Amino acid sequence: MEKNPSTVENAKEKLDHWLKQGITPVGGKLPSERELGELLGIKRMTLRQALLNLEAESRIFRKDRKGWFVTQPRFNYSPELSASFQRAALEQGREPSWGFIDKSCVSQFPQAAAPLLSAAASEELYCITGWGALEGHKVFYHETYINPQVAPGFIEQLESQSFTSVWEKSYNKDVIIKKLAFKPVRMSGDVSKFIGGSSGMPAILIEKHRADSHGNIVQIDIEYWRFEAVDLFINL
After folding, report:
1. Which residues does 27 contact at the CB level (< 8 Å), separation at least 6?
2. Which helix (H) or strand (E) holds 8?
3. Which stretches make up the HTH gntR-type domain (predicted)?
4. With 60 as the cut, is the pLDDT of residue 140 above it?
5. Confidence of residue 75 (pLDDT cuts 50, 70, 90)
6. What does DSSP assign to residue 159?
7. 11: left (phi over 0), alpha (psi -120 to 50) or beta
8. What angle do CA 215, 166, 95 make, to 5 degrees?
9. Model pTM score
10. Residue 32: enclosing H or E segment and its boundaries?
């Protein structure tokens, strides 16, 4: 004899039916937990567990202090390609936006950026931080490190050009991806706040090492993607 579904499973089925009906559109905000509980006849604690279960399945996602949203289509991301986020998003019929948070020289940087010092000794690195969004929802945060001894004045040239364009036009360098590393992580509060998340939210960390024609590492990118927002693939 089969067991009756748990209360949480029943709540999840009601939420699943709500999502399939399209009452809240893709990317749209769900009613508050109080309103949703009243609409579907679900107790608050049971509703919260059902929402967390759907979040784990990438059906919905949460923005800190803003509530729950219906997951957008995943962005198909091939990180070994040189195509910009803007171009790749437009090719997929998405609406990209992006922005810089800070561009400065730093004397303290993560160990992951240490390979940049092999090309030229330096006590500081350029650090450029920013974000990318699809349809107005921020989906990733990035930190980019560059050795100022290799590319003096790099950060002053980023206003209207991509990283690749600056390397080509200002430093006569064709940079290529030399190393890619992937890791599931939990975002720290300092990182997650830039994309509207909460401390400890799951993410995919992508580390890219870009090299010049001589094999010298000239740029290291560290990207944190919301786990429900992206599908990764590599072209062989």
Report:
1. 69, 70, 72, 135, 136, 137
2. helix 7-21
3. 5-73
4. yes
5. very high
6. S
7. alpha
8. 110
9. 0.85
10. none
